[in-house]
Write a structure and sequence with these properties.
The chain is α+β, with helices and mostly antiparallel strands and 233 residues long. The chain has 3 helices and 11 strands.
Length: 233
């Protein structure tokens, strides 16, 4: 029976060999993001180039729902008042997919605009202007006029701007390397081994060799036949 002990190690070795390597980026398959690496990535209301809604702030992301050949269905922002998630489309070739979850995928920015009441006696006092705060989504251009697509009190619309609001850019998509492509060594699809798995395999192999040596060393030699079965000659 002992001679079969090395065979018992085979299932362990097979499990270790077949175990996939740990993914480089956790949960990257559950939430897929793509970055607007440039300043010319539009967010559309439909799969139509005439349905432009706003330009995604440069270096920020959309959450990918479905990537088609020409257009990608996507979400921008989240439902976290005063912010509100919107769904739409982006040109697939304009986005840069990433294999990690960004720490700051969406630009959360509010802008305050002051409206002055013209030709009014009240314009010289505190009641001569009104301040209004909007959630900023991105830029839009109408007949050469720079606009902002905004949200206020549950209503979306455009307001004129003198200049684009200042905001901090992301750089995480530049510093985080992409994961290995399918079929490359070390990818989860090919079952690449990590250091722990390699060490475990070596230990299992050494144990199998040691057990085999003990079995061979302890194997009994064939005994001579009993005296009653010996020939008298």
């Amino acid at each position: 029976m002992k001679r079969f002990i090395p065979l018992l190690c085979l299932p362990l070795l097979l499990c270790l060999l077949q175990a996939p390597a740990a993914p480089a980026q956790a949960h990257a398959d559950e939430l897929r993001y793509a970055v607007a690496a440039g300043s010319d990535v539009w967010f559309y209301t439909a799969e139509n180039d005439d349905a432009k809604l706003f330009l995604i702030p440069e270096t920020y992301y959309v959450r990918v729902l479905y990537a088609g050949e020409l257009y990608t269905a996507a979400e921008y922002l989240v439902n976290d008042p005063p912010y509100q998630k919107i769904m739409g489309y982006c040109r697939t070739d304009a986005l840069t997919p990433v294999n990690f979850i960004p720490a700051r995928p969406f630009l959360r920015k509010q802008i305050t605009v002051s409206y002055t009441i013209p030709d009014s006696e009240a314009s010289q006092d505190a009641f001569g202007s009104i301040d209004r705060t909007f959630v900023y989504y991105g830029l839009y251009f109408r007949e050469g006029q720079q606009m902002a697509y905004v949200l206020s009190d549950g209503i979306f619309g455009y307001i004129p701007l003198r200049e684009e609001p200042a905001f901090e850019r992301n750089d995480d998509f530049l510093s985080v390397p992409s994961g290995p492509a399918e079929g490359e060594p070390g990818s989860a699809k090919t079952g690449g081994l990590n250091a722990v798995q390699i060490v475990a395999i070596c230990v299992a192999c050494a144990a199998a060799v040691a057990v085999a040596a003990l079995v061979l060393r302890g194997k009994k030699r064939s005994l001579p036949p009993p005296d009653s079965e010996r020939s008298d000659f």
